[in-house]
Design brief:
mainly alpha, 7 helices
């Protein structure tokens, strides 16, 4: 779970003060962000389902996002990736709850 929090921290660092158009033109930042989303999805994929079931979060979304990035990489709409970078608060909160309550 620490990996997820670190990945979220890094994504926020990578896109801090970066507007969407800048993101869409910056291959390095895109690559760095995509890699961190892979880490998030992989970490959640390997977390015990019994633990995840205790928390009201759509866990299938980060798992599916990971699969989408890996398998459909040639058709990724980078705008969607950018928007995902702006929507990490709930996931971060749930990860902190899991760490506090389960480990």
């Amino acid at each position: 779970m620490e990996q997820v929090l670190e990945a979220i921290r890094l994504i926020r660092e990578f896109v801090a003060n970066v507007h969407e158009m800048e993101f869409l033109e910056d291959k390095k930042t895109q690559s760095a962000v995509l890699y961190q989303f892979l880490i998030i999805g992989e970490a959640i994929r390997h977390t015990d389902d019994d633990i995840l079931a205790k928390y009201d979060y759509p866990w299938h979304i980060p798992r599916s996002f990971r699969n989408f990035i890996i398998h459909v990489y040639h058709r990724i709409k980078l705008e969607r990736i950018y928007y995902a970078t702006q929507d990490l608060d709930t996931l971060e909160s749930e990860m902190k709850n899991i760490l506090k309550n389960e480990f």
